[in-house]
Amino acid sequence: MPAEMIRRERIFNTLRKVFERYGFSPLESPALESWELLSKKGGLGEEAVKDIFRFKDKAGREVGLRFDLTVPLARIVVANPQLPKPFKRYQISRVWRYEEVRRGRYREFWQADIDVVGSASMLADAEVLAVAVDALQALGFKRFYIRLNDRKVLENLVTLAGIPSQKFLPTCRALDKLQKIGTKKVGEELKVLGIKRKSIQKVFSFIGLKGTNRELLKKAKRLGVQVANLEEVLRYAKEYGIVENLKVDFSLARGLDYYTGPVYEAMISGKEEIGAVAAGGRYDDLIKLFGGPPTPATGISFGVERIDALLAERKIEIPSTKTKVFVANATPQVRVEALHLAQHLRTDGLAVETDVMERKLERQLEYADSLGIPYVLILGKKELEKSVVRVRDMKKRVEEEVSMKKVSEWLQKRGQ
Amino acid sequence: MPAEMIRRERIFNTLRKVFERYGFSPLESPALESWELLSKKGGLGEEAVKDIFRFKDKAGREVGLRFDLTVPLARIVVANPQLPKPFKRYQISRVWRYEEVRRGRYREFWQADIDVVGSASMLADAEVLAVAVDALQALGFKRFYIRLNDRKVLENLVTLAGIPSQKFLPTCRALDKLQKIGTKKVGEELKVLGIKRKSIQKVFSFIGLKGTNRELLKKAKRLGVQVANLEEVLRYAKEYGIVENLKVDFSLARGLDYYTGPVYEAMISGKEEIGAVAAGGRYDDLIKLFGGPPTPATGISFGVERIDALLAERKIEIPSTKTKVFVANATPQVRVEALHLAQHLRTDGLAVETDVMERKLERQLEYADSLGIPYVLILGKKELEKSVVRVRDMKKRVEEEVSMKKVSEWLQKRGQ
Question: The pTM is what?
């Protein structure tokens, strides 16, 4: 509905502005991709692939609707090797994921992504995190934090725990469900994968470590786990002034197969049950996987629906229409003059509605009121003779006469 | 690519602004709809339906990607009977139409639609046409016209020519191809429909009528064809100041089945071969067809790709990046200070990039240049000591020293 869409556009515009401040440029990718690309091993991963909308086109080729904005980006990078690196793009678009159809609706989400393609430096990860912090603040969130881990840490851990490396990705997929299904069920999933009890215990004891960022890194090092990436990200994050927003959390795994380095999830304090409002990480192998040269990359994706739900909870008053004024005719004989006045005000850049229903005055006023249009100009024969209009403030329910010549200025002075 | 996307966003923003000036509010509809809705008889029509991307979801239900933005709008109107009327919405989104796949790409188009739902008055059609004229002017087109006809005129004509009414829609679909395949082939298609030679001749002689709007309406009336809608649209169009842009053309039919009244197509003079840049019409029966109460509606759809192609031809210089400045470090030792300066400039609202590749100065400059970033700030040890930066104007290839404190102001003064 328009009121929701106006709220959503505010989110889009806020994000866009922050992204552009960091030098990210807009890009659009197609919604349809070949099934081969979407389901490629080492890409999204087998669990995600199950949720892709998949079908055959008329030529019999299998295609699917994009599941995320990262896979299509990687394909574009492969197809355009001439792009200067780093290629920093943002995209605010829909993705589709299968879920049981309710009331005839399908699962479509809006995602807002930024990615830095071509940089292996942790500077890029720190920048992505700085954008996330800036964006969440610009959206109006005061208390939030970003969970931070590194797939390299988990890989290291899995090896130290004696788990064979081919079970690393399935382990990550299982760990990704910790917050949803709890430790016990994740433990059972790991058991089903054929991982030994002792190994599972080792993993759980490590990912359950608590403490400040500094303490956690120290403990990890003591256990022989490599944390060089995390140290570097935190060092740069300090320079970006966002280190206070980062919370090292060894239990963070992320569910998609393509992550290879730092991974992150932004949480709103006290609203953890809603899940991450933004999430991402480094995926250094994806572009190579799709046939391009080895190209490191990192990025984050904002979940627009979740952000919207949280902002809606706060009941910030947002106008339900962008229309500033309705020009009403008191009688059909002055309809044409009302129309001329509306056109004149539009030339001055005002957002104006006028009657296109051939309605009586009262019904015109009801309509303007139902939409929440703040001002109505009433034009009748009497007003026309005097070259004035009656301006009704729809909130205060007061009217005043304003000269026809000055009404545009009068309205422009009153910001909505 | 970003440069194309920046050009496209200018089109979106221009259209959005004009739409909002007329009181249209944003709305988004899902990309996926049930096949039953998309293929409903009397809706898009059998020729269009062939081009819909159609597939089965996991539950075995048939769904399709939207072919236009009108059918999903009609469904939303049916589902939300509480919406105040007129419901004036705009939507800038993608639609999908099947076409032979070339180089792995699928047919996705951007459409920008406005619709007035709930008004049977020709005032609504005139307003839609006024928005079209305003929008095309705002986009920078100087010479264009809108072809105008009425499905009621064609219905009347078909009856007068002795063609059975059940052949009316197939006749419209055939006439819609006139500009693409020519009179001869359309005549053959009509013959295949079982329409008599004499009837075909009558139709062609009528739709071939030439003259001014006034002359055409006069001729039609003399032949007993009803032109009341067109007269009224033209009368209101005069009040909107757009009558000079309208060109009555009895050969205009439009291809979709749902049109019931005035139909329109905007053409750029001298660029007719590219086809209409905007097209639409009245569809008074569609909402009822989908199970709603009888609800008249009218609207127009802008073809963003065609508009973009025409604007690109003119080679209007549009910046290829939105980034205003790149903060370069002359040596890794001042990287952190460059980063601080970048963050400071961002706080002031500037769009800033900085090195995330750990590159040497020369490569940083090359990168900024390849992106078309207009200014580079160079920060070295020497500059840092003096609290200045070297500002390089990348176009003029000149440098000057600016104090660190004043550089934000210096940049803000220079509009991109």
Answer: 0.89
